[in-house]
Specification:
mainly alpha, Cytochrome Bc1 Complex, Chain D, domain 2, 47% helix, elongated, binds heme C
Length: 255
């Protein structure tokens, strides 16, 4: 009788502990990330060109497990009984880019290490840039503009001659998306599910000219990079001058 009682206790203990064990496995344990990585700055721009590289690398190396949209539903995901993560979640994007870089490059357990398969760390930063675009709430995210650009002074005059150049360049390069009056109603604008901006709005013109220059020249996500298409930055400043004339409320604003 006594042995049966002990046996029963043992069975209960084993059942409970194994139950807890699998429960523990299902929950995602916090990553223990070295401070060096947590604070690491992304050395790349999230412009369209780099995002295309990041997306291609993601499709090649990551999609099989993390899925097309990054929610963790790739064909191989079912093999793992750990939580694979959700790249569209708020929690994921509350991490620093350095933390995301560490998880992606160093890995742990079933998450592979990529230091050999992707030898240039810059390529993994491109993937990180791409992961950052997978966030639903990013659609309205503010631009993260380097201080150098925020403070940049417009080196050109907004005189009639320069404005005519700016307008011609705007019509050639920008109108298809941003529209004739800059309110974001160009024929291509419908392709994007993000807010393309409104150049006639007060908010837009409350930015510094340097900020507008950065958005226009460097770009991000679906906003193209123009460093190659418009090689002389002065030409982009002419466009910025022109954009400044598109502000509706300035027309009636008192000095
Ligand atoms: C073979 C399947 C597999 C592939 C391929 C894969 N991962 Fe993972 N990944 C995982 C698993 C499993 C986890 C969860 C690991 C854990 O928590 O122990 C994970 C976790 C992560 C996390 C942390 C998610 C979070 O919210 O905690 C990031 C970031 C990540 N992977 C990025 C990538 C990137 C970038 C690639 C491609 C370069 C990639 N992964 C390729 C399986 C994979
Ligand atoms: C292929 C379509 C497309 C073209 C062409 C394009 N843009 Fe954009 N632009 C976008 C999209 C999409 C956004 C929103 C990007 C985001 O928020 O991630 C944007 C955002 C911007 C912004 C920031 C607006 C804001 O309020 O946040 C500026 C400034 C801008 N574009 C300037 C320009 C200029 C100048 C040109 C031409 C030299 C141009 N764009 C050409 C698609 C385009």
């Amino acid at each position: 009788m006594k042995t049966l009682k002990y046996l029963l206790i043992i069975v209960v203990v084993v059942l409970v502990s194994s139950g807890f064990y699998s429960f523990d496995k299902l929950l995602q344990e916090k990553w223990d990330i070295p401070e060096k990585y947590v604070k690491m700055k992304n050395p790349t721009y999230a412009n369209q060109e780099n995002l295309i590289i990041g997306k291609a690398l993601y499709i090649k190396h990551c999609l099989s497990c993390h899925g097309k949209t990054g929610i963790g539903d790739g064909p191989k995901a079912a093999e793992f009984d750990t939580d694979i993560g959700d790249f569209s979640s708020k929690e994921f994007h509350e991490q620093t880019e350095g933390e995301i870089f560490y998880q992606s490059y160093i890995g742990r357990r079933d998450m592979p290490n990529y230091e050999k398969k992707i030898p240039d760390p810059k390529d993994m930063w491109f993937v990180v840039n791409y992961l950052k675009t997978l966030e639903e709430f990013l659609k309205t995210q503010k631009w993260d503009i380097p201080e150098k650009y925020v403070k940049m002074k417009n080196p050109t005059y907004a005189n009639q001659e320069n404005l005519a150049i700016g307008k011609a360049l705007y019509i050639k390069h920008c109108k298809s998306c941003h529209g004739k009056t800059g309110i974001g109603d160009g024929p291509k604008a419908a392709e994007f599910d993000i807010d393309i901006g409104d150049f006639s709005s007060k908010e837009f013109h409350e930015q510094t000219e340097g900020e507008i220059f950065y958005q226009s020249y460097i770009g991000r996500r679906d906003m193209p990079n123009y460093e190659k298409k418009i090689p002389d930055p002065k030409d982009m400043w002419f466009i910025v001058n022109y954009l400044k004339t598109l502000e509706e409320f300035l027309k009636t604003q008192k000095n």
